[in-house]
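[Q] Does anyone have a clean structure-token version of this?
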Amino acid sequence: MACFTVTAATAVGVAVARHIVKHKENKNINVESVDTLKTSKKLGILEIALFGGSFILAGEHILHGEVTFTFPFLTAVKEGGDAIKTMLMEMGTVGVGMTLAIVATWGIGLIIRKLMLKKRSAKEVIG
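[A] Here you go.
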């Protein structure tokens, strides 16, 4: 129902953090090596992944008829009952799970990139 809102909210938070970091990076202009990826770029990659995940989750809910384009937008709210409890439960399980999966994948990608750069620099030193 509303699990995509968790990922979207996280993406908005990352976007704000990226803008703050980028502003600070622009103040401290450093000469960095070509292989160095700025923190703002790393956060930008995470932001795109989170917004993409949220978009995919929202699309899936639209295709299954759980989200409509008429008020109140969520079909569970129209049905009444334990809609709020159900939505919070889904947000806490699927939404948080999806967000953690995206962040973990992003982190693993950064680690792999760092290891590949370290391996390449070691080859260059050896010869």
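[Q] Thanks! Anything notable?
[A] The mean pLDDT is 83.
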